[in-house]
Recover the amino acids of this structure.
């Protein structure tokens, strides 16, 4: 793994000529994202993220923390005990440079012997599940890391809007979706400074599918807030 996201984040933090990150999926064209967006302050965050940070309590685990903006809000403004993890070494280096006290390189599936009151997974948190088939493995792991009465705050989007309307003669007026499997299973490619990361799976879950997966894995699921563009924040708990 080239860790291009991490490289971009660290370049921005250290003023090393950062450039936009280029993302592309199997159903969408190239899109540019400013690295500065990953360094946004609380008042610049979408309402879904702000709501999640308001609901966080107790000992917090920030999964896929990236540049650490959510963790910094919880640590510095809310004075919570936050552990920030990411699989990107350069992202974690950046988090440490920004002042996070407990940031470390960690795969969530390999995390053992720790319990948290709040597990935070934001910026399409369901993405880390990769595929619908892998979702139960992640939900069981997350459930095992919860303190009694703990909660998982996770966001995602229903990307059905990205598919064209089915205009065939036998259509029921729904969407035309090619291929097999769940429509929220995408393949992502990231490019930065003329380097390209090997493509990786990334999962967008509509709320009903997340709720069904949660129930099947012994978790309750509550819709907390819906955004302006098919996105939502959910709370999972035992």
């Amino acid at each position: 793994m080239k860790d291009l996201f991490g490289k971009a984040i660290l370049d921005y933090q250290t003023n090393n000529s950062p450039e936009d990150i280029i993302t592309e999926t199997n159903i969408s064209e190239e899109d540019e994202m400013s690295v500065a967006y990953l360094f946004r302050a609380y008042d610049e965050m979408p309402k879904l993220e702000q709501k999640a940070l308001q609901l966080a309590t107790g000992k917090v685990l920030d999964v896929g923390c990236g540049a650490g903006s959510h963790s910094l809000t919880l640590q510095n403004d809310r004075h919570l005990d936050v552990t920030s993890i990411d699989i990107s070494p350069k992202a974690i280096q950046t988090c440490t440079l920004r002042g996070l006290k407990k940031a470390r390189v960690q795969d969530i599936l390999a995390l053992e012997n720790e319990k948290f009151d709040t597990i935070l997974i934001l910026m399409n948190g369901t993405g880390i599940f990769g595929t619908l088939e892998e979702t139960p493995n992640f939900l069981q792991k997350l459930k095992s890391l919860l303190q009694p009465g703990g909660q998982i705050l996770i966001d995602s989007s229903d990307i059905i809007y990205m598919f064209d309307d089915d205009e065939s003669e036998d259509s029921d007026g729904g969407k035309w979706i090619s291929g097999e499997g769940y429509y929220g299973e995408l393949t992502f490619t990231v490019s930065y400074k003329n380097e390209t990361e090997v493509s990786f799976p990334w999962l967008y879950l509509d709320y009903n599918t997340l709720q069904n997966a949660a129930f099947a894995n012994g978790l309750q699921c509550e819709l907390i807030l819906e955004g302006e563009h098919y996105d939502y924040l959910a709370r999972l708990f035992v």
User: Anything to note?
Assistant: The two ends are 35 Å apart (CA to CA). The chain is about 25% helix and 30% strand. The CA atoms of residues 2 and 122 lie 23 Å apart. The chain has one domain: 43-165+174-185+203-237.
